[in-house]
Specification:
Order of helices and strands: HHHHEHEHHHHHEHEH
Oligomer: single chain
Number of domains: 1
Shape: globular
Strand content: under 5%
CATH topology: A middle domain of Talin 1
CATH architecture: Up-down Bundle
CATH superfamily: NCX, central ion-binding region
Distance between the termini: 24 Å
Number of strands: 4
Largest sheet: 2 strands, antiparallel
Structural class: mainly alpha
Strand order of the largest sheet: 1-4
Helix content: over 70%
């Protein structure tokens, strides 16, 4: 029973830990006159991806690679079908041309890059499926290119990255306390989530891959869900959409890149099916924009369709797992 309680508390600590880390770090940065642009591009942008990163690192180090990779792929599918679906039901989402022309295709390129890295060893004589440290370095290189693109957009005034950047400057001692508290919260939360997921998988005869693709994926995507839902409620749809697409790119290139640099990740070929689902879900965004009644807009009916697709995918995972 204690493991299940810690599993739930772990998710809460992951979300709050990321929030505390962002608040404390942003306050320290502002105190030393670091620009809002730098804060937005680093601390705030990466803050919502910290739960995925911590879970991935702990899962990978503990030998639970299926949880780590399932968390990234599952979180991205959740971001598109569940989070975009919920946001579109709340308020129709208008998507900028730059997102359609640049960011969505970049997320597809990132996915194909990860899929190729995972399957490239199929062409080796030993036939060992592994995402290596070299692959991680390539992923981080592409992430650097994406960050350079975002900086260019921001300097041109075409990107709003600072919506959630904390503006308050706290006393230094309080800021450091928040940073330490955030790091502890992220570590303990990540450990309890991974330990609980492994135990649940064993007790119920479920695969670690299934746990990673469903429960952990949804849990670590809660920051994105809250951000996009609130942005849609406030009718700030640019942020709602950019949050989802940006988070997907962060997960594939930054989270996965750092994870495999720390420890190479064995790859289960069955996850190729989930890669295909993620690719189709991403393409579904473009298709819905091309066929919708209003140009560059995802309306409530499409949002409901996204949610139904997510339910169908979850049912498929349970059947497969």
């Amino acid at each position: 029973m204690l493991v299940y309680i810690l599993f739930i508390i772990g998710f809460i600590l992951l979300i709050k830990g990321a929030d505390w880390l962002v608040v404390g770090s942003s306050s320290i940065a502002k105190k030393y006159n670091v620009s809002d642009l730098v804060i937005g591009l680093t601390i705030v942008s990466m803050g919502t991806s910290m739960p995925e990163l911590v879970v991935n690192i702990l899962a990978s180090v503990s030998g639970s690679a299926d949880i780590a990779l399932g968390n990234v792929v599952g979180s991205n599918i959740t971001n598109i079908l569940l989070i975009l679906g919920v946001a579109a039901v709340i308020y129709p989402l208008t998507i900028k041309n730059s997102t359609i022309i640049s960011e969505i295709p970049f997320s597809i390129i990132a996915l194909l890059l990860v899929a190729f890295a995972a399957n490239a060893s199929l062409y080796n004589t030993n036939n060992t499926l592994l995402i290596s440290r070299g692959d991680g370095a390539v992923l981080l290189l592409f992430f650097a290119l994406f960050m350079a693109y975002i900086i260019k957009l921001t300097r041109e005034g075409r990107a709003e990255l600072l919506e959630d950047a904390p503006s308050e400057v706290l006393p230094l001692s309080k800021s450091i306390f928040f940073v330490i508290l955030g790091i502890i919260g992220l570590f303990l939360g990540g450990k309890w989530v991974v330990d609980g997921a492994v135990l649940i998988a064993h007790q119920f005869g479920m695969s670690q891959k299934l746990i990673g693709l469903t429960v952990i994926a949804v849990g670590t995507s809660l920051p994105e869900l809250v951000t996009s839902a609130m942005a849609a409620y406030r009718k700030n749809t640019d942020i709602a959409v950019a949050n989802v697409i940006g988070s997907n790119i962060f997960n594939l290139l930054w989270v996965l890149g750092i994870s495999v640099l720390i420890k190479p990740m064995p790859f289960d070929v069955a996850i190729n099916t989930d890669f295909v689902v993620l690719l189709l879900a991403t393409c579904l965004i473009i298709f819905s924009l091309m066929t919708g009644k209003t140009k560059n807009k995802i309306g409530k009916p499409t949002g409901i369709f996204f949610l139904l697709c997510y339910v169908a995918y979850t049912v498929f995972l349970v059947w497969r797992g």
